[in-house]
Amino acid sequence: MANPPTEENQTRPGLWARLRRPSTRYSLLGLLGTGMILGVIFWGGFNTAMEATNQMDFCISCHEMRDNVYQEYKKTIHYSNRTGVRATCPDCHVPKDWTHKIIRKVQASKEVYGKVMGTIDTKEKFEAKRLELARHEWARMKESDSRECRNCHSFDGMNAESQKPRAQKSHEMARKDNETCIDCHKGIAHQKPEGMTEEDE
User: Fold this and answer.
1) What number of other Cβ atoms are within 10 A of residue 1's Cβ?
2) In the predicted structure, residue 10 carries a pLDDT above the cut 80
3) pLDDT for the residue 94
4) From CA 140, how far away is CA 148, in angstroms rounded?
5) Residue 107's closest CA among 124, 95, 116?
6) pLDDT beyond 90 at 7
7) What is the pLDDT of residue 108?
8) How would you label 11-39 residue by residue, b for 16+ Cβ within 10 Å and e otherwise?
9) Are 91 and 151 within 8 A, CB to CB?
10) Are 193 and 131 in contact (CB under 8 A)?
């Protein structure tokens, strides 16, 4: 049974009531100004943290990435080429626009869980899960119409005349069939996993 209300309980308002009532100490302008400053500090800190996790150094700070896919990537044209333009991990795996970037970062929390639980902490474990991991990424890229690839590559930007005949024909067919980059370019920056099916190819 609840305690009977005392004079002290009746005079002291609850937390919700205190939050709702106007301040007698601070002006509305002062409270708004303080809220805005705190909001800017929070937003700046949040974006700084987001950008810090969007650097290649962060991506390869885990040995699972550094010792496996990063070593493969260093042998590709995305890492070293005649023009010196380098596509880093976030360029291919993290959307640029804010909404899709946040969604991708939330999805990546599963990868943090995998790191903590040690699901791919050895070369053997990584290779055993490589096909599953690749399929997830291929599906994500297919669903987004290879959005990250298109940050640098587009059919409209291609000079077909400077392409080899095979590439020219393939790109023309892909455009007609509404195919996307990942339909043909699996294994462009990382080795293809063993055990791929015809559907994967």
Assistant:
1) 3
2) no
3) 93
4) 11
5) 95
6) no
7) 85
8) eeeeeeeeeeeeeeeeeeeeeeeeeeeee
9) yes
10) yes
Q: What own/partner pairs with CB < 8 Å and gap ≥ 24 does 127-134 have?
A: 127/193, 127/194, 130/193, 130/194, 131/193, 131/194, 131/195, 131/196, 131/200, 134/186, 134/190, 134/192, 134/193
Q: Residue 92: which of 19, 21, 141 has the closest Cα?
A: 141
pLDDT at 19: 66
Length of the chain (residues): 201
- Tell me whether residue 107 is exposed, middle or buried, using C-beta atoms within 10 angstroms of its C-beta: 0 to 12, 13 to 18, 19 or more: exposed
Structure tokens at 87: 């596509």
Amino acid letter at 42? F
* Three-state secondary-structure class, residue 143: helix
Residue 16 Cα distances to 2, 20, 21, 113, angstroms: 20, 6, 9, 37
Report the predicted TM-score, pTM, of the whole model to 2 decimal places. 0.75
Q: What is the pLDDT of residues 123-166, one digit of tens each?
A: 999 999 999 999 999 999 999 999 999 999 988 899 988 999 99
**Which residue in this structure is represented by tokens 């890492």?**
79
Q: Which two tokens stand for residue 68?
A: 């496996």
Structural contact between residues 50 and 108, judged by C-beta atoms closer than 8 angstroms: no
Does residue 38 carry a pLDDT above 90? yes
